[in-house]
Amino acid sequence: MSKAAAIRFVSENRKAHGVHEATTKTRRLVLCTVKRVRQSEYYEAHNAGFRPEYQFDLTAAEDYKGESSLIYEGKEYEIIRTFEKPAGGLEIIVGRSDRNESESDG
């Protein structure tokens, strides 16, 4: 089952200031459709060391600009893979990172 959703892509921008480096995060809102990951996708990714949770379908592939993570329902997810659909649009598979889990545990 799928439903309409809003996600925020997260970009990290790094700038050097002498010997120091500053990192800023930019968030960009995109509308999409969200689904639970298919069972076959889950097992394939899990065997490769990933834990996929959601699939996001974007109507326009151009809405994705190479970000490595996104925020959905207040949680940050790593982008595991993207797939441009033959009929148009983009499929994005995401999962939680160990970093995010340790942050929420503490």
What can you see in these coordinates?
- The protein is an alpha+beta fold.
- It has one domain: Bacteriophage SPP1 head-tail adaptor protein (Thrombin, subunit H, Beta Barrel), CATH 2.40.10.270.
- Helices cover 16% and strands 57% of the residues.
- The chain has 2 helices and 6 strands; from the N terminus they run E-E-H-E-E-E-E-H.
- It has helices at 39-47, 98-105, and strands at 2-17, 20-36, 52-58, 69-72, 75-84, 90-95.
- A 6-stranded antiparallel β-barrel has the order 1-2-3-6-5-4.
- Strand 4 (69-72) and strand 5 (75-84) form a beta hairpin.
- The chain is globular.
- Residues 99-106 have low confidence and may be disordered.
- Looking at the structure, what is the overall shape? globular
CATH class, anyone? Mainly Beta
The unreliable regions are 99-106
Radius of gyration: 15 Å
Q: Mind telling me the CATH superfamily name?
A: Bacteriophage SPP1 head-tail adaptor protein
CATH architecture: Beta Barrel
Compressed to H and E, one letter per element, the order equals EEHEEEEH
Compact overview of the structure:
This protein is α+β, with helices and mostly antiparallel strands.
